[in-house]
What does this fold into?
Amino acid sequence: MPIKTLFALLAIGLLSTAVAAPEANVPSVLIKSEPLRKQSLTETLTAYGSVTPATGATENISFPRAGQITRLLVVAGQMVKRGQVLLEFSTDPNAAALYHQAETTEVFARSELKRVEDLVARQLATQSQLAAARKALQDAQANLAAQRNIGGGMAAQQIKAAFDGVVSLLPVQQGDRVLSGAPVLQLSKGGKLRATLGVEPEDIACLRVGMPTRIFSVFGNQPAVAAQVLQIHGVINPLTRLVDVDIELQGAGGLLPGMQVRGTIELDSKESWVVPRSAVLRDAQGELLFQVRDGHAQRIPVTVAIESGSRVAVSGTLDSSLKVVVSGNYELQDGMLVRENQP
It folds into this structure.
């Protein structure tokens, strides 16, 4: 082979090596990617609150007379059966004295009327005196009936559960003296509960009655209880500075009145590009993700529309034919060479 030809071949080989060397030395990032998919994703709103008895499912127990809790046979949160004795109550001595006084007054008024009637028959009393005696008896009888209605004649009284339920409120202890009309116990029907959640005022516009909701206990790992939005209040709660939203529970699920809960309300759903949460990054320019084009990372600015669990719905100039980087994207820059992490 001529020497000139040999030198020419050597020169071509060296030139090829020089061109290929930089490509072989270009750094690449190990990534994992998956196809871009469109699917329906439901936006959720999370709020916190507590469990309360449903309207009409409670019975408040109080006494129309003063007295004392002589025996207390239940505790707050206890499940009780219909007919079970809850407490024993003794009438205050002053209330008992009023009843006996009413009895005495009625007996005296009755005898006084009989005496005046006898005097009228003998023309020793006037008709006005007779009318006054009758009126006195009527007043005495009305007073005695009122005292009897409030139980003034009962030295002691047992209170029994009117239905199967839960002792949801118990503000007294054994031995406490209570005033007339003061609440001593609240009994709630089992299984009929609601949750009251506090929602930020700006989020109220997203809510509608009937929206599906899931209720979770803040403490413990009990399964979610299915529920739905029952009522949206129209004012801000002055204590929480939030708007109360009543949620109707479709079962108890181990929840009891007074328990702290977390509610997840399902808002409107829409079909969007959906990617794993790990695919979306944020830098000084905003949110972004990377797609793979011809073995290189392509930076795509996106806007996150809905977040639901580990998936997010995004919008932007996405190419449905390109895969999305879901792992290793923290090391990427626009245009970097990537290699796929094969399972």
User: Anything to note?
Assistant: The longest strand covers residues 37-53. The domain at 45-54+190-269 is CATH 2.40.30.170 (Elongation Factor Tu (Ef-tu); domain 3). The two ends are 51 Å apart (CA to CA).
